[in-house]
Amino acid sequence: MRSYRTLFRTPEFTPFLLSFAAHAAAQTIGSLALGTLVFRATGSPLLSAVSMFGPQLAQLLGATFLLSGADRLPPRAALTGLALAFAAGTAVLALPGLAVGAVLAVVLAQGLIASLGGGVRAGLLNDILPKDGYVLGRSVFNMLWGMMQVAGFATGGALLVLLTPRACLLLAAALYVLAALGTRLGLTARPPRSAGRPSVAATWRTNALLWSSRPRRLTYLGLWIPNGLVVGCDSLFVSYAPGAAGTLFACGALGMFVGDVTVGRLVPPTWRPRLAVPLRLLLAAPYLFFVLRPGVALSAVAAAVAAVGFAASLVLQERLMSLTSDDLAGQALGLHFVGMSTLQGVGAALAGTLAQLTSPATAMTLLAAGSVTVTLALAVLDRPEDRRPAVPGTRPDAVPKPAAMD
After folding, report:
1. Predicted TM-score (pTM) of this structure
2. CA distances from 236 to 227, 307, 398 (A)
3. Residue 377 DSSP class
4. pLDDT tens digits, residue range 340-369?
5. Is-contact 289 239, C-beta < 8 A?
6. CB 333 within 8 A of CB 314
7. Are 203 and 66 spatial neighbours (Cβ–Cβ below 8 Å)?
8. How far is CA 114 from CA 86, 341, 381, in A?
């Protein structure tokens, strides 16, 4: 599938995409409002970064207990319930007088349940689209995410001039409700992809199987670590340029959009595997120049150029799917999203700590250097034979039939 026209003619793809758009807008506006609220209350770069990106840390715990649900729960019901839970949590964050500790508890709880959402959504996309349409479909989702970030951060920045952060959080809660309605009304009910109930045992068993393959391990690490360190750089925008954070986030989202259009639509499939390393290097390199403490205009250009490199995730997700059987697609992708989100949370916490001890510009430079180093190390370890897809018709990831207790 190489045509957007064919993609949007696929049944259920459009309502699925629109529901995700509402969810993305809610997350973007809500995170900027929350980060601003916490920074105004505490003046701490660390707490501001953790409030925006800290929920990702809780996704590691969610991966331990909940991730098997990505293939073992009805996807429409799961996504609807998750959106409503986010709406309730965001409304709680808007309560006046809420202590910073309570704020962090709520956002960590949101991160815990979000660990399930990425796998359910990615697995459902894999079901809706034919195999040759996954990369194009995923790139459209990423492009939409970029556009919603551009619009959301720009709109959120403008709204924060006119409204209080708490009012913006209530708007985000309403958008989560809209996402729940879109999922419930726009998608058909599907049975779970795999038999058995979600359980800790099933989650651990399948995660261990996925991690046991060296090619998949290297793919997961390439998806997680360079990305997480660069998101740590992004998490310091509020403390680096408090009056222009929305602009920096919006420029980064624009760069992400350009990268996804280029890789998902314009680059031939045979060329994509060669771009994994160059794109990950591009993701980090512009942040090395923050050692010079550039002004807002140059910082915005650097953020936009760097964000083009986020398209490396498309290349590596395609490799991951080629190495994984269909019945484990939801949990395999869910493990990717959880690991990526967790490393993003770690990157944000590390960035905030370094900025607290030095400065936001110095912290960005150090994290970018770390991302470049990891990318080069993984490139050395990645043998050509690791990139070969599974033989068609085989089930390299077959797992034992779940026990009755699952």
Report:
1. 0.67
2. 15, 15, 43
3. H
4. 877 887 888 899 899 989 999 999 999 999
5. no
6. no
7. yes
8. 9, 10, 32
